[in-house]
Amino acid sequence: MVAPVENLTTLHVRVASLGPHPRLGDWDLASAEVLSAEPVSGRADLLSQYVGRTVQLGIPRRLTGGLHPGSGLTLRARLATGDILAEPNPGPGDFTVDAG
């Protein structure tokens, strides 16, 4: 078995749609265009390859209250078992919403 790569990338996205995640309780799934990405120091960057593409992004539901289609969002996310998941407990300034 191969150990997962510790990875984390700062993403700037524009939300296209948002609804319940089909597999993860208490998470929502956003369809979002990746506008830009920056590596996080000390972590592998596995998400910059998605800049300019629309991805499915899992976000803990407790963080999605201010999101709607058209919202801009800056967050840190990782690739985990084929899913792109937001950092579940972001630090101050690591999850910001621009109402758009």
Account of the protein in words:
The chain has about 100 residues and is an all-beta fold. About 0% of the residues lie in helices and about 50% in strands. It has no helices and 6 strands. Strands 1-2-3-5-4 form a 5-stranded mixed β-barrel. It starts with 8 loop residues before the first strand and ends with a strand. The mean pLDDT is about 95.
Chain-wise SSE layout:
Blueprint: E1 9-20, E2 27-39, E3 54-60, E4 72-80, E5 83-86, E6 95-98
Parallel strand pairs: 3-5
Antiparallel strand pairs: 1-2, 1-4, 2-3, 4-5, 4-6
Order of helices and strands: EEEEEE
In round numbers, the mean pLDDT is 94
Numbering strands along the chain, what is their spatial order in the largest sheet?
1-2-3-5-4
The radius of gyration is 13 Å
- Percent in helix: under 10%
Q: What are the low-pLDDT stretches, counting only 5+ consecutive residues below 50?
A: none
Which band does the percent of strand residues land in?
A: over 45%
Class per helix and strand makeup: mainly beta
From the spread of the alpha carbons, the general shape counts as: globular
Question: What is the β-strand count?
Answer: 6
Number of continuous helical runs: 0
User: Could you describe the largest sheet, including whether it forms a barrel?
Assistant: 5 strands, mixed, barrel
Q: Compute the separation of the termini in Å.
A: 43 Å
Would you kindly provide a brief summary of this structure?
The protein is an all-beta fold and 100 residues long. The protein is built from no helices and 6 strands.
Keywords:
single chain; 100 residues; mainly beta; 5-stranded mixed barrel; 49% strand
